[in-house]
Every structure is written in structure tokens, then in C-alpha cells.
Amino acid sequence: MARRAASHRLEFEPAAIYQYPDHLRPSLEGLPSLPGVYVFHGESETMPLYIGKSVNIRSRVMSHFRTPDEARMLRQARHVTFIPTAGELGALLLEAQMIKVQQPLFNKRLRKNRQLCSLHISDGKPRVVYAKELDFSHTPDLFGLYANRHAALETLQKIADEQRLCLGLLGLEKLQQGRACFRASLGRCAGACCGKESPQQHNLRLLTALERVRVQCWPWQGAVGVVEQGVSHQQIHIINNWFYLGTVEDLAQASSLTTTPQGFDSDGYKILCKPILSGKYPILSLL
């Protein structure tokens, strides 16, 4: 009986009674096949329903119309607007900025994480440090960006297991002076705690394992313009300390984008780090 009731409820889920949202057809007429950000608006003038990005706005918006799981959002939508960008980088940056500011109902909420932390290596020993206390944009030897202390230590534990590192030397458990750790007797520690390998060898394996998640320091003295050339136009994205400050068409307009927020923007870092450091985009100094 309970199974029949559950099955009956599933038949009336929004996805199961999906109907094509004909009321949104007028919004589709001007959608371009260009990169950019699009917005589904509901009744509220201040809080959109959904903000997305794509290298092809028209194609991506149309894909929402073919997705029954989005029926609830589509029924609430009243019209769709868009903002074209020069390319994918501009779309990624603008989407993240708009979601944080406008907090759309159907997007994953992006908020400043006050527990954002990293692993800092000092004298060969890792410790958890927090972005609210340390300038991650200019601090060397940071490894990984983690939502909280538990996530950082979990990563360190995983590396210890993979590399047979000593939990005592990593600060994850206490060592008794003159005695090997318990994991050494099981062959799960290579023995840096009891002289079977040197502390230097132990630390080298730790650093080698962490290198893939090294946090790159901001490589310029101040803000720069990242030039993105698109099919229809060119844009210059103003960036400082991995923060996206805005986009201009002409570098002379950049003087209005001078305020860099405090803290560290992990979303901006993840979007910008590889594209900027790869040399893919021309960089203009604003000094």
C-alpha cells in the first residue's frame, strides 16, 4: 500500500506533468548564438529565478525547455534576458558575479565562505590556515582550497595513506618520544618517525604530493586587464588578487573599477588561474 502511494506521488511530481512553456516563446526571438549570460525572470523585479552562462546562449536556453526536471522553474518564469560577452571567460566571470549579488532562487547559492582554508607548509610541517586571517593571494606555500578544517585534514590524511607518511610528523596524532608510530608497525608509515627514512625524504614526498594543488600567488603588483577577443567584439576583464572587478570595452574606462574587496575569492581563483597563467589571453598592466 505504501509503495503504491509513493508511486502515485511520483506521477504528480513537476517533472512528470511537464508542459512546454509557451508563454516564454516571445523571449526566444532575440536570443543570439553567442557567448554570454542569460537570466530567467519571474514575478520579482529584484530576485531572478535562474542565471546561467554558455558559449551559445540560444542553444543553452533552449536546452532548459527540453528538460522536464526544470518544469517548476519554467512555470514561474515570465521572460528571459541575456548579456552577451566576448567569450567563455567573460561569461564565467559575469555569471559568478551575478549569482553572488542577486542570489537567484534556482541557482546554487554562492556566498563568501568564512571557513575557507588551506594547508600551509612551514619548516616541513603542514598546518591549516584561514583566508580570513591570511592573505591567500600573496602567501607562498599554500596548498589546496578547502571549505573547512575537516576537509583540509581529510585531504592530508589521504595523502598520508597514499605516500606512507607519518601522521605524527604531520601533526595528525601524537608521537611518543623515541618510539615509532603505530602505523609504522603495520607498514603504513615509511618510518620517518623511527629513523628508517630521513625527515627530508618524508617532507619531499609530502610536497610532491601537494604540488598539484599549490595555490598560485597573484603574480602582478596590482590590477591587470585580461583581453578577451570574441567574434563580435573585444572585452577587457579587470582583475586584482584573483578578484573579478568588472569588464570594460576600453582600458580608459578601467579607472572606475578600483576597489578590490578584502579576503580571497575562491570562485574567481578557480575560474581565472589556469587561463591567465597559461598565456592564453593578453595581459595589460594598469599601473
TrEMBL record:
PANTHER family: EXCINUCLEASE CHO, UVRC/OXIDOREDUCTASE. One of its GO terms (cellular component) is excinuclease repair complex. Keywords: DNA damage, DNA excision, DNA repair, Endonuclease, Excision nuclease, Hydrolase, Nuclease, SOS response. Transmembrane segments: none annotated. InterPro entries: GIY-YIG_endonuc, GIY-YIG_endonuc_sf, GIY-YIG_UvrC_Cho, UvrABC_protein_C. GO terms for molecular function: endonuclease activity; hydrolase activity. Residues 33-108 form the GIY-YIG domain. This is Excinuclease cho. One of its GO terms (biological process) is SOS response. The keyword Nuclease applies. NCBIfam families: PRK10545.1 (NF007833). Gene3D superfamilies: GIY-YIG endonuclease.
